[in-house]
Amino acid sequence: MSNPTPDALLGPADVRELAAALGIRPTKQRGQNFVIDANTVRRIVRTAGVRPDDVVVEVGPGLGSLTLALLEVAERVTAVEIDDVLASALPSTIAARMPERAERFALVHSDALHVRELPAPAPTALVANLPYNVAVPVLLHMLDTFPSIERTLVMVQSEVADRLAAAPGSKVYGVPSVKANWYADVKRAGAIGRSVFWPAPNVDSGLVSLVRRTEPVKTTASKAEVFAVVDAAFAQRRKTLRAALAGWAGSAPAAEAALVAAGISPQARGESLTVEEFARIAENRTAENRITENRPAENEEQSEQ
To answer: Residue 255 and residue 247: Cα distance in Å, rounded?
Structure first.
């Protein structure tokens, strides 16, 4: 395998020249902040543990800073870009700066939240500098849609990184924490300074590592049923679970019954529960619903006899 040229990655002047040639400015609407430091993108690739046999999917490649660094190492890279101008320019940038790897690159011009298919082979890793305004929905969508993704490293707003990696009992533990943990073991993997971006954001950034669970959460409840409990529990996070889950369960007594059956105190709060405990609540409520739904039919059979 031939090695890329030493100056293949984008530096500050390269990024600004590309942007000027395309007539673009990063937009807040799409959360665009372009990485202008080659050392940073190489660090991200190292931290992600990208291997020579990996098929990496990248969301929001922008001008291609991280894309080029990924192509230095990975077998293939598929980039998903929503912006028309950026999407049209990226293949040319790859071909110009890393021609020996251009055939290993594929572009999907689409909103990542709507992507259901990617070019073969299936991705084994997700590495991305995610737009701050859609980071969590995009991450969860990609993990759900592409179960072949074993390892993920995303750069997100530092506060979002804290929430994703938070453990039960933490003040920032919430919906993103639980839902990410449904798919993977999650941890903080470093911090990124503001000066490596253009334009420099008003917030710090953090790296989050997600390694897909070798075994799914053991439960008879569906993901949708478990996530419904999670959403309800944190919609009113200051309330006890008995009160917070009343609407979800149909009443406070019904919520209490599901909690007790799951071995969880009705006075507990959502921020203290693991994803497995949320799954047990969903499981018990689902089982109770099935029993209730079957009762009228049983009564009709008895009346006919």
So the answer is: 8
**pLDDT tens-digit readout, 165-194:** 999 999 999 999 999 999 999 999 999 999
Helix H, strand E, coil C: the string for the chain is CCCCCCCCCCCHHHHHHHHHHHCCCCCCCCCCCEECCHHHHHHHHHHHCCCCCCEEEEECCCCCHHHHHHHHHCCEEEEEECCHHHHHHHHHHHHHHCHHHHHHEEEEECCHHHCCCCCCCCCCEEEEECCHHHHHHHHHHHHHHCCCCCEEEEEEEHHHHHHHHCCCCCCCCCHHHHHHHHHEEEEEEEEECHHHEECCCCCCEEEEEEEECCCCCCCCCCHHHHHHHHHHHHHCCCCCHHHHCHHHHCCHHHHHHHHHHCCCCCCCCHHHCCHHHHHHHHHHHHHHHHHHHHHHHHHHHHHHC
Task: Give the pLDDT of residue 305.
Answer: 37
Nearby residues of 120 by Cβ (< 8 Å), 6 or more positions away: none
Task: Categorize the per-residue pLDDT at 222 as very low, low, confident or very high, splitting at 50, 70 and 90.
Answer: very high
Please write the tens of the pLDDT for every residue from 92-125.
999 999 999 999 999 999 999 999 999 999 999 9
